[in-house]
Amino acid sequence: MSILKHTDWKDTKRTLHLLSQILGKIRLELAAQEPQWAHVMLNVTPGGFSTGLLYHGSHTLQVEVNIRRNEVIVHVDDEQEAASLKDGKTIKEYYHWIFQTLASHGVSISIFPKPQEMKIDAMLDEDTVNHTYRQSEALKGLALFQMALREQRAFISSMRCRKVMPGLFWGTFDISTLIVSNIPEPFPVDKPIEKAAFDEQFIEYGFWLGDDQVDVPSFFVLPYPFLNKELKDDSLEPEQAYYDKELSEFFLNLDTDIPASEPIQRFFHTTFDILTEELGWEGCDYYRKPLLMKKPPTV
Prior knowledge:
12 strands, 6-stranded antiparallel β-sheet, alpha+beta
C-alpha cells in the first residue's frame, strides 16, 4: 500500500474529519460515560466509520458515513435513510439532514456544534466552507485507518491488562488504543477534555494522518504522565523509529510504503518495554502471559 500524504487529500480529509465530529458528538450525547473518553470513540467499519449502536429512549440508532457507497446513513430501529456523500455538499447540509432525519424518527437530540480540537471557526451547523469530497482519496484514507486498526488489535487484543480497544477519536481524527495502569494521575490544569482524558497513568498507541507541519502519516506512542526528557534506548525498533522529548512521543513515520506488520509490532512492543520501565509499572510481564485458548478453528 502506498502512502497517502496529508497534502494529497487534506480538503477531503477535513470534510471527513468534520463529519466524524458530528457523529462523535452524537455518541458523546448518548453513550454511557467511560474513563479516558473511551465512550466517544467511533467504530471503523468496512465502508467508513459509524457511531455504533446507540440508544435514545425506546429507540436504537446508528449514524454511519459509508465511503464505499458514497452515503451518510441514519438507522433508527428497523428503518434507515441515506443521503448522498458528494463533492460540493457542505457540512451544514449534512448536519441539518442528519438531525432532521433523526427527529423525524422520534430521536430529538442536540449537540454543541463547535468543532473540538480543530482550528476551524465555523460551527458545524453553519459551515458552508468545507465541502470537498473525492471518493478515491477517501478510500485510501479509509484503508490506512483499517490497516492501523488491524495492527493495534494484533498488539493489544491478547494483553491481560485494563485497556481501551482501538477506535477512532474524532477530536484529533486518529486511531488509538490505550493500556491503562489504574494509577491515579490527575491532569495539572483544569481543562475539561484533558482533565477527563488524563486522570490515570496510561500508554497510548495511535495512528495519525499528518498535517501541514508533518506531511506523512505515522504511528505514535504517548506515555502519560508525559516524560519530556532525553530518552535514549538501544532496544527501540525498528531503526527508523525515534523519540521526540518535546512531545514526549515515540514515532514511526510512514515515508514511502506501508511497512510489513512485523516492524510495526516491534515498534509497539519495544516502546511498551521502555515506557513501563520508565513509568515504574509493576507486574507487566503478566500482561503477555499466553491465553489458555486454542487458536481458531477450535472445533
